[in-house]
Specification:
23 strands, 2 domains, Immunoglobulin-like, seven-stranded mixed beta sheet, mainly beta, four-stranded antiparallel beta sheet, globular
């Protein structure tokens, strides 16, 4: 069941998040006198440090007049459609890290081609997967440089310092400001808690990130979590985080064929959200599971948007 809140409250939450992102941008290091020859930062590439980058893309929010009977149905009147961004024009990135790094620097290529630190501080993990010892980092670049395509590199910090042994991620490049829709093809009411997930192949994909989770936050925050991104990391309870290399287009829990970063058992008759995103060989997210519709209801009207995930409810045959 969905819990509804007023669209006015939603607008307030959205503004608060936007202001928070502006504050984050304000903390970014002011880049001056970048060395154009600084294209090979100290450190060494590690396959256990993977970066994914993607542009800030909107979710479409439809406003409906709620005509009797009460609640969303085909007889309701569409009043408007609006694109809502978290930080329009920004670039986002996530780093999945399994190295000995205790924090990360994010390096950005500037207009002259040289790298400079995006932030004047070291990133801390936003999620820790204790069983596998992997960690997730996230960053936002609110004012990307004019270098094309926008390019980023993560560098791990070891015991508070950068050394020749510091792990380097792949270079993440954002070549497109559009996103393909990843089409989920598996049964959404499977009879087994070891669910099988499947999807249509995405052209150009080298692999697929998978997250199974339950969202624990309020409805306004849930709308914001629907933004295209590989993972939701705020107000979630994770059940599976993993990666499947292309050309595979399916994975069954409990079997081989995936790199698993976190896993716990699913419970029958419970509802889960399955988010899948495709990435290419440049570390760019190129497709995303926009998923099912969700609703935010007010008196006489409601908002409709895509969850950013598919709802799956394992249910045994009775």
């Amino acid at each position: 069941m969905n819990v509804f809140r007023s669209p006015v409250r939603l607008a307030t939450v959205s503004l608060a998040v936007a202001l928070g992102l502006v504050a984050m941008v304000g903390c970014a290091k002011k880049v001056t006198n970048v060395d154009a020859d600084y294209t090979a930062p100290e450190g060494q590439y590690s396959a256990d440090a993977q970066m994914v980058v993607y542009p800030d893309l909107p979710i479409v929010v439809d406003t409906f007049k709620d005509i009797l009977p009460d609640g969303p149905d085909t007889g309701d009147e569409l009043q408007s459609s609006e694109e809502r961004y978290v930080a329009r024009g920004a670039m986002h990135g996530m780093i999945m890290d399994g190295t000995a790094a205790t924090g990360y620097q994010v390096l950005r290529r500037e207009a002259n081609g040289g790298y400079a630190q995006l932030k004047d501080y070291t990133l801390n993990p936003v999620s820790r997967y204790f069983d596998s010892h992997w960690e997730l980092y996230a960053f936002t670049d609110g004012a990307p440089s004019s270098f094309s395509p926008p390019s980023y590199l993560g560098r791990g910090v070891l015991s508070g310092a950068v050394t020749a042994s510091s792990p380097l991620t792949n270079v993440g490049q954002v070549a497109s400001t559009t996103m393909q829709q990843l089409v989920y093809t598996a049964n959404t009411i499977p009879t087994d808690s070891l669910i099988t997930m499947s999807w249509k192949a995405v052209s150009g994909a080298t692999g697929y990130w998978i997250q199974i989770y339950q969202f624990m936050g309020g409805t306004g925050a849930k709308l914001l979590s629907a933004q295209p991104a590989p993972f939701v990391y705020s107000d979630v309870r994770n059940y599976f985080v993993g990666y499947v290399a292309a050309p595979a287009t399916s994975y069954k829990l409990g079997e081989t064929g995936a790199t698993i970063y976190f896993q716990r058992g699913l419970i029958l008759k419970s509802e889960y959200l399955v988010r899948i995103s495709a990435v290419n060989d440049q570390g760019e997210m190129i497709a995303f599971s926009y998923g099912d519709y969700a609703y935010l209801r007010s008196t006489g009207s409601y908002l409709r948007y895509r969850l950013g995930a598919v709802t799956v409810t394992p249910t045994p045959d009775e």
